[in-house]
Amino acid sequence: MTAIWKLKKFNQLTTDEMYQLLSLRTAVFVVEQNCPYQELDGKDQEAQHLWLENDKGELMALCRLLPQGISFNEASIGRVLVNPEFRGQNLGRGLIDKALEVLKENGEAAVTIEAQYYLRDFYASFGFVENSEPFYEDDIKHVNMILNF
Question: What is the DSSP letter of 34?
Fold first, then answer.
């Protein structure tokens, strides 16, 4: 099975692509994590949407990349997920590698993320360092982390 990375700004997404992205995000962040929250937060329009898609058109992993000043003073990576059907294949590592590559190409100097606390070692393996106290967002423990290029 082959897979291809796709990167599009909001206004470049087809309606089918947007539906697939939002459907998978809702399935993971709202349903799987049992976390009722407003998934549509008004930031998608400012984001670049990055995803890995297989040759059947299935979304395997995705995230959104936000420029400086939207979520943090720095650029940010958010809504990071691997489709439950494709977990255990190191796609999360590939996704973050690709996201950091895109942000570097965009000329960003630093990236801040709001990481789920249990994933802080995963993000630290890319060079992110914690820069906040742990906090709860929608009843899930998080910590802010930053990476300077």
Answer: T
- Render pLDDT for 30-85 as a digit per residue (tens, 0 to 9): 899 888 887 889 999 999 999 999 999 999 999 999 999 999 999 999 999 999 99
One-letter identity of residue 69? G
CB 44 within 8 A of CB 10: yes
| 146: nearest Cα among 118, 123, 113 | 113
First CA to last CA across the chain, in angstroms? 33
pTM: 0.95
Supply the DSSP symbol for 51.
E
* Cα separation, 115 vs 143, whole angstroms: 5
Task: Give the C-alpha separation, 60 to 54, whole Å.
Answer: 7
HSE-CB at 78 with a 13 A cutoff on CA atoms is: 22
pLDDT at 2: 92
Per the structure block, which two tokens stand in for 146?
A: 């930053």
Q: What are phi and psi of 77, to 5 degrees?
A: -115, 130
The answer to whether the beta carbons of residues 138 and 37 sit under 8 Å apart is yes
